[in-house]
Design a protein that fits this description.
By secondary structure, this protein is α/β, with parallel strands linked by helices. The protein folds into 2 domains: 4-192, P-loop containing nucleotide triphosphate hydrolases (Rossmann fold), CATH 3.40.50; 199-271, no CATH class. The protein has helices at 4-28, 38-56, 75-86, 104-118, 131-134, 146-157, 175-181, 199-209, 215-227, 244-255, 261-271; strands at 62-68, 90-94, 123-128, 165-172, 189-192. Helix 1 runs antiparallel to helix 3, helix 4 (104-118) runs parallel beside helix 6 and helix 10 (244-255) packs antiparallel against helix 11. The structure holds adenosine-5'-triphosphate and magnesium ion. Residues 75-76, 129-130, 171 line the site of magnesium ion (MG).
Length: 275
């Protein structure tokens, strides 16, 4: 029988890994999460339910979720936020950014190691960020690392040992290729992270980051964008869409020119039309 003491010492054993991963996670969400649209809370809430499912259901020791959406829509930050909010004793981010220059063998080893480590903790979250980059997907000629792909497919469906529970959060901008690659039945659920396409969301982001000195300036910029078509909801022809990541960097660039913030911002956003 496992008693509370065993459980606590198990937590102690995995604690060093938690410290390291916490830093990584905090880094990817250092800009925080802006609640610019009800969908943001819906996604976080859906993530929380999956975390609770892993925590409480003995029937589902392995739960996996795919966060997908266009580049820069906030997939990594959302995945990291859901992971961090779990407060599970083992939380780890597998990111292509930390594997630059790795050989295929080294990648396979590093990825496998994270999962193997997670099996030592009673409750774990592993964020597998940007699947297409992890497998070195190249659209031209559809080449990729089969070794890494097979490793992920196996690990995504391997049940953790008895008494261990694991949530896998994967992210991708290329959901359509995942089916062809064999991930189709791999995820228990999928959550779409949409880009920003409404004036209201844009306004909330602008307010949150305090780009404009006055409400009047902000409203002026917004009405210029509205006239140019931002926020027109035409599903078939989405004139404007911008990922939160790009929007935030566009805002920071505009901020560099205090004299012409509004022009800089609107021009940069207008340039995105049709791209
Ligand atoms: P890529 O396609 O390049 O991998 P991504 O979709 O993973 O990009 P992130 O790297 O997560 O995007 O970038 C989103 C940035 O926006 C982060 O800096 C995050 O802190 C910030 N952010 C602010 N509000 C939100 C939000 N509601 N959702 C997600 N990220 C947000
Ligand atoms: Mg990302």
């Amino acid at each position: 029988r496992v008693n509370r003491g065993d459980f606590m010492s198990a937590l102690d054993e995995v604690h060093p890994a938690f410290g390291v991963s916490e830093e990584e996670l905090l880094q990817v969400i250092q800009n925080g999460i802006i609640h610019h649209d009800p969908v943001v809370d819906k996604i976080l809430q859906a993530g929380k339910l999956l975390v609770e499912q892993v925590r409480t259901s003995t029937r589902t020791p392995l739960v996996s979720v795919l966060l997908y959406g266009p580049p820069g829509s906030g997939k990594t930050a959302m995945g990291a936020s859901i992971a961090q909010a779990s407060e599970f004793p083992f939380i780890k981010l597998i990111s292509p950014d930390t594997m630059v220059g790795f050989s295929e063998t080294q990648k396979v080893a590093a990825i496998t190691r994270v999962f193997t480590d997670s099996y030592k903790s009673p409750l774990s979250v592993v964020v597998v960020d940007n699947i297409e980059r992890l497998i070195d997907w190249t659209p031209m000629g559809a080449r990729f690392s089969n070794g890494v792909l097979q490793t992920l497919l196996v690990l995504f469906s391997r049940r953790p040992p008895k008494g261990r529970r694991l949530l896998v959060i994967a992210t991708s901008s290329l959901r359509s290729i995942l089916t062809d690659l064999g991930f189709a039945e791999n995820f228990d659920s999928e959550l779409r992270i949409p880009p920003i396409s409404s004036l209201r969301s844009l306004d909330l982001v602008l307010q949150e980051v305090g780009l404009f000195q006055s409400d009047q300036q902000r409203k002026q910029a917004l009405s210029m964008l509205a006239q140019a078509g931002f926020g027109d909801t035409d599903e078939m022809n989405p004139t404007f869409q911008i990922g939160i990541k790009k929007l935030l960097s566009t805002i920071e660039m505009a901020r560099q020119e205090p004299e012409s913030v509004a022009e800089r911002l609107t021009n940069s956003l207008l340039d995105l039309r049709g791209t």
